[in-house]
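Researcher: Next entry in the queue.
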Amino acid sequence: MAPLHASDRALVDRLLAGDEPAFDRFFKTYASGLFRFALLRLHRDEDAAEEVVQATLSTAIRKLGTYRGEASLFTWLCTFCRHEISAHYRRAQRTAFETALVEEALEIRGALESLAAPGDQPDAALEQQELATLVRTVLDLLPNRYGDALQWKYAHELSVREIASRLNVTPKAAESVLTRAREAFRDAFATLHGDRDGSPRRGLA
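Model: Structure for this entry, 205 residues:
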């Protein structure tokens, strides 16, 4: 049975065969449409739309062999584009989450430095990227319940009542979870910070 979109299937066959004019046609035909598709879903952020389209086309080229012509080529490409848009928002959300926790981590570092003995001050503050990596490591060590609560608080900016609803507990209990989550985060950060700079681990019995 012939594919419903035989002309699209024929173009893909040419692409798979390495036909250079076919690649020119492919990019000229679909790049602008994908850009408009992404732009509408990225709040008119042109830079983000360009990144998403590039990622979409790269993924599509790698997976050309899976195209069967059952849907139009543009519809098929839009499926990848939607995945890339979702990934963009996940990265943005994660960045916001890490930034919020990095701010707390900086406060923790200040507290550690204030406890250090004279002449035993750590070197200059960690670079932002290094600190973000440390925060990610700390989050991986936390119980899922604590990690979720922190993410809802800092990434999603949910109220305590909303967090309580997600945890299926009372608002007072949610506040307690958040308090314990922050304390666990600070303790884990202090422990890993000690491992990184060679100083004794603090906050451990």
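Model: The chain has two domains: 6-90, 116-197.
Researcher: Noted, moving on.
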